[in-house]
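Q: Sequence in, structure out?
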Amino acid sequence: MEYFEKTINIDEPVENIYSVIANINHYPDFLPYCISTTIMSIDNDIITARINFDFYRMKISICTKNKNTKYESIQMKLIDGPFSKFNALWLFSETTSSSTQIKYSMEYTVLNPLIALLIKKNINTFIEKFIEAFRRQIKSQRN
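A: Exactly. Output:
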């Protein structure tokens, strides 16, 4: 099983950051490689969603059940996708009233060896692109 973790600080209130990351429907508008999303169900704080990606003409779809704890965390559990195992966690910690620490971690095992190699070789690039896209989106929501 592979493991990845990244912690960043963003000079924005936790409410602004959480609202952008939790709003899966808008991912295709700004998130690199994301071509579509579908909310399959919402039950209180549990959201089941599918996100479709196109990584260099390789179509990948992942469906997760997400437990959202407003302004604190988003726990993601695999339902379906290119992984045999996948768990991810977003943790949001308010450092000041206008600054937030975000910790993203995931553990995964990929079924397809080609996709596994693609992810392993490019995970830092993918995550940096995602983080920058989220930062831009958070700023644009403020303006």
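The chain has one domain: 2-142.
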